[in-house]
């Protein structure tokens, strides 16, 4: 039984400690092989062990997550657009509720701050409530102001204290303990005031409690809003799908829901409308804009018999399209699935942040207790300073920034890549693309246009060129290979299609008109015991001209050499030059003969050439380079080069149709031309820079902020103590700054 993978939508995660905890707990389950939890996407990807059914696995994992006080449900993906719409509505509703609580919270916090601190900076305060004249009223008003703020921020205490009791504190726990300590100490001070000790009026921290909750709530709202922007690239893909279509029958059309359409139906797409399905053009000719799907800026001309993709924008003429793929089977749906999967995956660079985040909150809580004890027991400062320092440590140290540093950058970068026609399947591929030392290219269809033509035909014995081409075309009649198409295009006679045997890396053998016919390279002739001595001069001449020679034999006797030439892509020189400037070594691995491969390589300035390479040879060559410690990428067509793409550290598969999910490789290049390789490499480097910036900020913030909050500056040099309010504000802004920095990748070009 093969291993089963599924995705869960998680609710209730507030920081990296939450995602790290779920990941660690679930990964230890007997049913689970591997799990990856993403904080920005609120999703978990789970891989079950062999023999575990999906039903049992999903049930066990959801129950375990719910025991951790988080919500979880299976993300079926039955209808990606509807699922996204529902999640988008829930997210918008949650964001709206967050926003509604902010104005009263901020207003109360401002009044509280004015009453508690205003008199210290000369601001007027009614005599009735000044601490000198009426300390009890001064304390009571602050208590009445802070209680509504704490009620509006009740989730901090509900979730934070619950997680603390279970032994798994998170960011909410830090806020709950920090503000709770400030509140309880202030209640104690208030009681002391009412018992007659007015000096405790200066030991009230109600304003710290209220302002902290308000500032952290603002920060969470800004973070949530930024995360919605970070995920909006997926939304732009989702919005490409129309919700209705014009079903076309017997010369007339009617508007119906997409759910009412079936495979084989015909739809009418008017100029300026988006194509609702993948299909084949039955009638009409137009130009179709696929830029938001493939990154191709120039509209693609389509005519009768051509293919169109759901989400594309029809140009100037109406089209009647026969449906070949619907709903989740369309290319757009496959792209969305790949991007969502990549966004939920983890890059190796995230491992350090995950480990630190898991232990971070307990360490901070220990440090806060040690800070309190140190100031209370070993200094001459008042106890209020010890409380202040403890609160500052708790509220300034938030693991959110660390937890968001890597996955948010990955989320934005993979979605941006999809908009540019570069589908990155997972975060490991995104990271690896920026570390490549060597790139190996297939030749046909990759460095060349893959549209060869028959330019030379030499015959032996009594066979004419026409007869030789007819036999070759009969063998190639059922093939979709570019060389087969070239031979079929050159043949002018009637073709009798056969069922040939394909010998990978060699050619074809079959029976035509009762004769055994073989068509392929020199190695095939050796395999078939055919003497190729007659072809020596022809082979030499064709190779010198960078033409691919195909040898044709009938009943074990050589009768012809057919010369096929391909054209180098116009951008190949430019792209290879750019790669060399980036310090990346280039090589070409081709199944063509060595002289032909060398000729193309010399034209393009490629560093190394391997010709006459079988699929397994390509994988072996890449393995040998990897054994030298090099990071190797392979660029190929995703089908013939599958072994090499799998062997490489990162495989770039050139998409050759609408079935994106069938492509081999780690990165799928939807756009025609090699510029997509440069796009992928530069996007990876940009994403890695962004991640390192985020991690540097997140770790640097905590490394510098915690000692200051503990009072190190005050203890050593008599410097200021950090106000809990400033610490809370800095904590809220740190997470937002990380997300905003990641959002810069939306503008990558």
From TrEMBL:
Identification of the protein by name: Copper-translocating P-type ATPase
Xref: CDD domains: HMA (cd00371), P-type_ATPase_Cu-like (cd02094)
Keywords: ATP-binding, Cell membrane, Membrane, Metal-binding, Nucleotide-binding, Translocase, Transmembrane, Transmembrane helix
Main subcellular localisation: membrane
Transmembrane segments: 105-125, 137-154, 174-194, 200-219, 356-378, 390-415, 695-717, 723-743
Mode of membrane association: Multi-pass membrane protein
Any matching Pfam family: E1-E2_ATPase
Record family assignment: Belongs to the cation transport ATPase (P-type) (TC 3.A.3) family. Type IB subfamily.
Localization per Swiss-Prot or TrEMBL: Cell membrane; Endomembrane system
UniProt entry tagged with the keyword Electron transport: no
Domain HMA: 4-73
Domain of life of the source: Bacteria
């Amino acid at each position: 039984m093969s291993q089963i993978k599924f995705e869960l939508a998680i609710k209730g995660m507030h920081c990296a400690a939450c995602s790290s905890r779920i990941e660690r707990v679930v990964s230890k389950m007997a049913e689970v092989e591997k799990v990856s939890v993403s904080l920005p996407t609120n999703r978990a990807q789970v891989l079950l062990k062999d023999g575990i059914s999906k039903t049992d696995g999903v049930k066990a994992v959801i129950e375990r997550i719910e025991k951790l006080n988080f919500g979880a449900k299976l993300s079926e993906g039955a209808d990606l657009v509807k699922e996204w719409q529902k999640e988008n509505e829930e997210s918008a509703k949650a964001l709206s509720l967050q926003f509604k609580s902010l104005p009263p919270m901020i207003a109360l916090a401002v009044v509280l701050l004015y009453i508690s601190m205003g008199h210290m900076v000369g601001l007027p305060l009614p005599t009735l409530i000044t601490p000198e004249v009426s300390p009890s009223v001064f304390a009571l008003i602050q208590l009445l102001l802070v209680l509504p703020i704490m009620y509006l921020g009740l989730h901090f205490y509900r979730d934070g204290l619950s997680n603390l009791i279970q032994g798994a504190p998170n960011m909410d726990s830090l806020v709950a303990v920090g503000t709770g300590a400030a509140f309880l100490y202030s209640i104690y001070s208030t009681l002391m005031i009412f018992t007659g000790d007015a000096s405790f009026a200066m030991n009230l921290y109600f304003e710290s409690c209220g302002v902290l909750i308000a500032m952290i709530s603002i920060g969470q709202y800004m973070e949530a809003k930024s995360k919605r922007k970070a995920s909006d690239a997926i939304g732009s893909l989702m919005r490409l799908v129309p919700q209705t279509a014009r079903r076309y029958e017997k010369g007339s059309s009617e508007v119906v829901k997409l759910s009412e359409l079936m495979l084989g139906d015909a739809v009418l797409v008017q100029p300026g409308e988006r194509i609702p399905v993948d299909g084949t053009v039955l009638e009409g000719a137009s130009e179709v804009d696929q830029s938001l799907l493939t990154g191709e800026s120039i509209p693609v001309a389509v005519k009768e018999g051509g293919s169109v993709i759901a989400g594309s924008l029809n140009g100037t003429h109406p089209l009647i399209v026969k449906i070949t793929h619907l709903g989740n089977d369309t290319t757009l749906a496959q792209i969305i699935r790949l991007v969502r999967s990549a966004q939920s995956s983890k890059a190796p660079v995230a491992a350090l942040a995950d480990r630190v985040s898991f232990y971070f909150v307990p360490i901070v809580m220990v440090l806060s207790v040690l800070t309190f004890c140190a100031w209370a027991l070993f200094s001459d400062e008042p106890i209020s300073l010890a409380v202040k320092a403890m609160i500052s440590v708790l509220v300034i140290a938030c693991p959110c920034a660390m937890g968001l540093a890597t996955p948010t950058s990955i989320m934005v970068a993979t979605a941006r890549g999809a908009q540019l026609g570069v589908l990155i399947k997972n975060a490991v591929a995104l990271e690896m693309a920026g570390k490549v030392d060597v790139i190996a290219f297939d030749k046909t269809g990759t460095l060349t246009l893959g549209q060869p033509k028959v330019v030379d035909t030499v015959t032996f014995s009594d066979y004419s060129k026409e007869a030789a081409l007819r036999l070759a075309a009969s063998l190639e009649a059922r093939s979709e290979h570019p060389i087969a198409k070239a031979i079929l295009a050159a043949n002018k006679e009637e073709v009798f299609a056969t069922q040939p045997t394909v010998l990978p890396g060699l050619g074809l053998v079959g029976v035509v008109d009762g004769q055994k016919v073989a068509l392929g390279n020199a190695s095939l002739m050796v395999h078939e015991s055919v003497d190729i001595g007659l072809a020596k001069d022809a082979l030499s001449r064709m190779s010198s001209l960078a033409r691919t020679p195909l040898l044709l034999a009938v009943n074990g006797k050589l009768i012809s050499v057919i010369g096929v030439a391909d054209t180098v892509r116009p951008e190949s020189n430019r792209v290879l030059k750019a790669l060399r400037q980036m310090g990346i070594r280039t090589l070409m691995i081709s199944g063509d003969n060595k002289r032909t491969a060398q000729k193309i390589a010399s034209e393009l300035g490629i560093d190394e050439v391997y010709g006459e390479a079988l699929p397994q040879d390509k994988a072996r060559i890449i393995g040998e380079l990897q054994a030298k410690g090099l990071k190797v990428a392979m660029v190929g067509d995703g089908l013939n080069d599958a072994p090499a793409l799998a062997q490489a550290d990162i495989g770039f598969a050139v998409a050759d149709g609408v079935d994106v999910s069938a492509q081999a490789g780690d990165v799928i290049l939807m756009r025609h031309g090699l510029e997509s390789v440069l796009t992928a490499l530069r996007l990876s480097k940009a994403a890695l820079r962004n991640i390192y910036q985020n991690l540097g900020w997140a770790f640097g913030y905590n490394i510098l902020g915690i000692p200051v909050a503990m009072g190190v500056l005050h203890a050593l040099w008599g410097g200021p103590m950090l106000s809990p309010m400033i610490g809370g504000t800095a904590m809220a802004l740190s997470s937002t700054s990380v997300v905003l920095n990641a959002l810069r990748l939306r503008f990558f070009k």
